[in-house]
Amino acid sequence: MALNADDEDYNWEPPTEAEMKVIQARRERQDKISKLMGDYLLKGYKMLGECCDECGTILLQDKQKKNYCVACQELDSDIDKDNPALNPQAALSQVRERQLASSLQGNHAEPGTAHSDPSPSATVQPRPEHCEGAASGLRTAPFAIPNSTLSSSVLASSSPPLPANGPVPVFLNSSPPGAPSHSALDCAEDVLLQKLQWATRELQQSNSVENSIQLCNLLRSCAESLRSIKELQQL
Amino acid sequence: MNGSHPVDISILVQVAETLESIVSRCFGPHGGLVLFTKATGELLITRDGQKILSSLLLEQPIAKIIVHSAVAHCHVTGDGTKSFILLLAALLRGLRVMVMRETTRSTGRHGQHGLQLKLLSDHLLAFQTQVLDHIVRCHLRQCASSLFLSDRDCKVTRSNAKLLLEAYFYGKVGANHCQSLSTLACDYYLKCTGGDQCNEVVGFICDHFEELHTKVVGIPSSSSRILEGLVLHRDFTEYWPTEEELKILVITEPLQPPLVDASATLYLQSDQQLQSSCAWIHQRVQEILSRLSVSGVRLILSSVKQTDLVLYHAKLNRISVVECMDPEELSLFCSISGAAPVSPWDIFLDQPTHLAQAQFCKSILLGAHRYAHVGITSKSLCPQYCIVLCGPVSGLTIQCASAFHGAFKMLRQTLQPLESRYGPHETSENIELQNGIDCVVSSINVCPAEGEAYGGTDRVEQPRQCLARNLIPGGMHHSEPLHFHSCHVKEECCGDKLLEPHCTCNIGDATSIMKRTIELNAKSTGDNSLVINAQIDLIPSPTREEECLCTLIAPGSVFPVGGSFELLLHYHLLKYASHCLDPGTKAVCNLVANALLSIPRNIYTAGKSTRHFLHVYTKAMRDIQSEGRVRDGPKMLESVSCKYQLLISTLECMRSLICIDCFIVGTRRVSPPASP
């Protein structure tokens, strides 16, 4: 099989740390999916012969004959956790990255001090990190730009119905007491408006009740987030 | 949904991993139980792999194939469903890595994997036929111990049987019932067979286990016991207790002659005719039963319901009757006792023959049911005992009964010799083997060719040729000589002893030559010299040598539990792969060697930590390198042929899975074409 194994092996380099993390995360995700599927099978669900169109996981069917994809509906997908419209932590980390990038360009501050002191400039107040994602977003400031472009492109192209995230309006309401820079809020507002438009288009085309309900939830949370941003801007 | 679904390696891995996640919770001696909610809503708490897998609702064809193969394997060996799934998942995972690596390397994108998989299945077949058999024959056979007392005496010792059965039940029913069930199984085996290696009896027990055991619910499991004779799972309709010897009649038709046959028509012209017909019938029945009573029949076993008239007369004649018996039970009874079903007309016309002989016949109360208990005098080798298995709840009792059944299937598999299905063959790829046997054979081979070099005459050459011919069993290994070995032998051959002419192979000198080469080999390769001596012993009797070629695993071979078979095979496979030149075989050897570790890993992993397993693994590798066997393991034993069969079944299942390209789902049943 591997007839030219020896030649290729000389060119092989060990995977970098980032790649290792991705590999590890993917493996853990697969393990989680298998465990969840095993649990459902033991509860009496049926394993079907079809695969999910979006993620390729095998579908399960419960006793009410409803199809169920474990990966899409229970686990957050790989890319969705970077999507600021869905995940409050991602939105927060995106805001923070923008601030850091603008402050870096302005002050040439060391990114190394970022993780010990989360406020390189006076405009951003220190705040306890709610998640690893936000903290690492601050730490790896140089990588912030490609990440955000990736997530925004994903935003534009993703079509699956997005599950409603309850905490979005709650989180943005507990915004910092100081006045954040306007660019970040405008950015967030633009993104939310885009999302709103997209969701409206999807709602028009949607045929299934489940999809429509989820899209309506998304619209509601976008509107609430917009309201909180407007309040922030007025402050 | 109709349509064709392509099958990719990732789907195979997904299905296998899902089944693995279910099965690994209850695997091994420390595994737990699984709570399963069936489609009907009832709960099932079990750790029996076969039960769990058969109860899952699976419409995915791949999953159905895997479960079907696992269950079929379990039918033969009595165990191994969970190990099957674990091994298969590990193999498929390793396969996916190989295939992904290959596609990204060759095309730079994820192209079609089908071709790689087909090539791999060919390599797998070559692996099974050439490499696996060879390694088992050369390396694993000598590490296995035997259940029997010695080679000649094929008696199974009680302690060995106990160790084997204890390990089995530990994995099957857990620590609670392990001791009691293993003692019971051991006693039953020894009672039925007398300790001799009796494959027919064990086979008979396996085939008729349903009828040979009785499940009793509601009594603590410590009341399980062995009973003499046979318990018939029906109560007496008429019961007359007898303690002395009696004869038993087996009948499959009603004793009372019918008023009219099914195909005939009776024309009655008056009431008197009807009454006279009935009176005739009465008289016949009376005569039949009095004849039976006279010939000593005290029990009638009937598979149909007898009429009240028959029962009344049986009561008058003090004959017990059991009706509506199961046909399987009745046939078992006939095969054990040597009786045959009798027709009523035979009784009437002639002295009834084919009666069964019994020592006693009584009623027995087991749990909430009353059964007939008959003590049969058996002429054949059939077992004359039956088992009563008790349990507090029906689920537990059923589990214990199936575990018991599986134990005897495992015993049957262990006590049979396992033949190599591929036969001895010539392998030109064994050239690189640093195997002690091959090296020695090759060194003897060299001498005739270089006979001239040290001034050898024909007289010197001949002994070498004799030796060479006898030592190469069936022309199996045509290894090329390695020069440094041959040089050493050449020096030794110049000794005086060998210049004497020998035309026939003299064992004494053969051993002396071999001993010298053994010492040299021991220094150079560190191989076990015991192996060589065993080969020499075989020389005078070539027939036994040929026999040894075909029998891969001797009957009664056992290994200590805890993964020693897997670790040993892993070590030898890796060693073979490092010397192998063919890349396909090398890749497959590495794949199988790494997948084999999944079983001991699951046994020794407590929670998430693999520390214990790594500790065991390093120690085992060290022991194998130094001594050739795994030391200091648990004392309990497991069967080699069952383990080997497991590996073969898994490899074959995997081969059949990776050759599937896509499956087509239809909603309508495909009917066979109508015959013209």
Automatic annotation (TrEMBL), chain A:
Start and end residues of each stretch annotated as Disordered: 93-133
Recorded coiled-coil stretches: none
Stated name of the protein: Zinc ribbon domain containing 2
Species whose genome carries this gene: Erpetoichthys calabaricus
TrEMBL record, chain B:
One Gene Ontology term of the molecular function aspect: ATP binding
Pfam families: Cpn60_TCP1 (PF00118)
GO BP terms, alphabetized: chaperone-mediated protein complex assembly
InterPro entries: BBS10, Cpn60/GroEL/TCP-1, GroEL-like_apical_dom_sf, GROEL-like_equatorial_sf, TCP-1-like_intermed_sf
Domain of life per record: Eukaryota
Protein name stated in the entry: Bardet-Biedl syndrome 10
Organism name: Erpetoichthys calabaricus
